[in-house]
Amino acid sequence: MTKKPPTPKDDKNLRLERIKESVLAGLGLTLLSKWAVHRELQWRTFVELKLQGMPAERTFSMILMKSIFRTNAASRFQNYPLEQVSKLSVML
What we know:
Strand content: under 5%
Largest sheet: none
Helix content: 40-55%
Oligomer: single chain
Distance between the termini: 59 Å
Order of helices and strands: HHH
């Protein structure tokens, strides 16, 4: 019986699980999305620490098909994050 090579998704999940296991073993802290640890937060094996004065910033990418036609919904979806960023910039 031959083993299938791991997919990029498998590899990513394995790394995430190793990070969580390291935290559970008391080896340190980590910064992960709530989605990545939602079960652990629900089970109360992890707790969320809110650090004042230390914003957590992430970079996101939007990947779109190269086409001339975009539906109104797709255009609105594409523009929404940019509008939110500009609103935040005005507030600061």
